[in-house]
Every structure is written in C-alpha cells, then in structure tokens.
C-alpha cells in the first residue's frame, strides 16, 4: 500500500502557481493536473483543501460530541427539565442548527464550485444508492427480526423525537442532519484520508460511520443493526467519490427522511 502526503503541493507548468496537488486542475489558469505518479487527482473537480477538510471533520465530529452537553446545560440553566422528547428534541435541533451554520461557514468560499455539478444527472445517481440502501435494509431487517432483534436504541430515540414534532424532525433528522454528516464525513474525513490512500479512506470512513451510530456496545440489537449503518456508510462514500457531494447528500437525505416517515406510521 502506498501512502502520500495529504498536504502536498504542485507547481503549475503554465502559470507557475503553487496549488493543492490533489486538485484536478490549476485554480489560476485551469490547466489540467497531469500528476502521473500514482496519485490520481479527484474525480470531484473542486475540493476544499486539506485544512478545511480537517476542520470540517473536527467541527462536525468533535464539536458535535460536546455541543449537545453544552446546549443541554444552557437549557437547564433556563429552567428546562432534562427529560422527555421535548427536551431531547430542543437540544438536538439546536445542535444541528449550530453545526449546520458552522459547517456551511467553513465551506462557504467553495460552495459555488462544490455544487457546480448539483443540477446534473450525477446528483440523480444518488437515487440508485438510496434504492440499494432500502433494499439492503429490507433484507437485513427481515433476517434479524427472525433471530430475535427488536428496535435498536438509535431507532427508538428517533421514534420518540419524531412523534413529538414530525415536521421539525423531518427538517432536522431528515435534511439538516444528513447534510451536516455529508460535510463532516465525506467532504471532510474521506476527502482528507483519500489524499493519503484511497483504500484506507474507504475502510476508515465506513467503520467510523458505523461506530458513531453504536450507542450501547452491550446491546445485541445495536450490533445487529451495525451492518445497515456500515452498508449505508459505504454507499454514501462510494456515491460521493464517484458522483460528487450532490449524489451522497440526496442518498442520505432520502434514507433519513424515509426513516422519519416510516416511524410516523
Ligand atoms: Zn496554472
């Protein structure tokens, strides 16, 4: 396995501008990156650069861990009781809202180029990824019910929140949350690790994405639903790598929105 320096730069043959060695073209003159030393430029034309990628991951993952705790302390200081679906919803939606603003501000200068392929058929390919995830979950779900699985903790927490405020949960759990996660794990973690090694990036992001959805490692149910998260994590990463951030966002938003709608039934 070959590992490369994620911060590598290259000098443009035409205009001599130094730029991100993993970008597919020179940002100044547009000359195609002709790197042929085994490190392929990204299929995704525009990338954030290694520092913003790391920042997206740190904000989206590490800050997310503590933000919930801080917001819940603030709410309690204002007299809210830390129990029930209303409190959990208020904390979760505030965290997602704050995170969304932070992440968007990190990627802000690159939004026009990141989403330049958004209105193309590449984005629609996210629909196939969504269909594959639904198919996997249907088959896997019916298998594990036969061996005695019940609703996992992640799912039952989601159910409580959804029935408390269906529209807000569709907005935050179905749309804002997945966009935050795509910025954190695909634009951030995956893109950064892919600079080092593509196989490593796929394995690490898929496992990590599964692990963040495991809340109680003593619960058999949670372990049984792990393959669903691992499959979805891999599928979103594949979609991003092949067709860009539009495809992985569409697939993730549809997957989560479907879960919200199903738990309303
Ligand atoms: Zn140039």
Derived from helix and strand composition plus strand pairing, the structural class reads mainly alpha
Oligomer: single chain
Low-confidence stretches: none
Strand content: under 5%
Give the overall silhouette: globular
What small molecules accompany the polymer chains? zinc ion
The domain count comes to 2
Helix run count: 10
Which bin fits the share of residues in helices?
55-70%
Tell me the number of strands.
2
In sequence order, what are the helices and strands, one letter per element?
A: EEHHHHHHHHHH
Strand order of the largest sheet: 1-2
Gap between N and C termini, in Å?
A: 48 Å
Biggest sheet overview: 2 strands, antiparallel
What is the C-alpha radius of gyration, as a whole number of Å?
A: 20 Å
Mean pLDDT across every amino acid position:
87
Description:
The longest helix has 31 residues, at 166-196. A two-stranded antiparallel ribbon has the order 1-2. It has helices at 50-77, 84-107, 111-114, 121-124, 126-146, 153-164, 166-196, 198-212, 220-243, 245-264, and strands at 9-11, 18-20. Helix content is 69%, strand content 2%. It folds into 2 domains: 1-41; 48-264, no CATH class. Zinc ion binds next to loops.
Tag the structure with descriptive keywords.
265 residues; 2 domains; binds zinc ion
Helix-strand blueprint:
Blueprint (H helix, E strand, L loop, with lengths): L8 E3 L6 E3 L29 H28 L6 H24 L3 H4 L6 H4 L1 H21 L6 H12 L1 H31 L1 H15 L7 H24 L1 H20 L1
Antiparallel strand pairs: 1-2
Helix pairs in contact: 1-2, 1-7, 2-6, 2-7, 5-9, 5-10, 6-7, 7-8, 7-9, 7-10, 8-9, 9-10
Bound molecules: zinc ion.
């Amino acid at each position: 396995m070959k590992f490369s320096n994620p911060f590598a730069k290259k000098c443009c043959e035409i205009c001599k501008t130094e730029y991100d060695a993993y970008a597919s073209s020179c940002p100044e003159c547009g000359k195609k990156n002709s790197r042929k030393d085994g490190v392929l430029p990204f299929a995704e034309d525009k990338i954030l650069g290694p520092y913003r990628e790391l920042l997206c991951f740190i904000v989206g993952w590490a800050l997310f861990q503590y933000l919930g705790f801080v917001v819940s302390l603030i709410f309690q200081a204002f007299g809210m009781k830390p129990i029930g679906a209303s409190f959990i919803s208020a904390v979760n939606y505030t965290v997602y809202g704050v995170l969304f603003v932070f992440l968007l501000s990190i990627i802000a200068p690159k939004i026009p180029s990141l989403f330049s392929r958004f209105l193309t058929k590449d984005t629609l390919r996210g629909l196939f990824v969504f269909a594959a995830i639904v198919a996997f979950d249907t088959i896997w779900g019916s298998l594990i019910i036969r061996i005695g699985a019940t609703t996992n903790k992640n799912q039952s927490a989601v159910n409580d929140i959804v029935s408390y405020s269906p529209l807000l949960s569709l907005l935050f759990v179905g749309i804002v949350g997945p966009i935050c996660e795509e910025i954190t794990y695909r634009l951030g973690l995956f893109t950064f690790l892919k600079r080092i090694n593509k196989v490593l990036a796929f394995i690490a992001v898929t496992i990590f994405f599964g692990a963040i959805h495991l809340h109680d490692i003593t619960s058999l149910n949670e372990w049984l639903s792990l393959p669903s998260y691992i499959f979805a994590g891999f599928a979103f990463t594949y979609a991003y790598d092949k067709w860009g951030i539009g495809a992985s966002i569409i697939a993730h938003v549809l997957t989560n929105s479907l879960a919200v709608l199903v738990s309303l039934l």
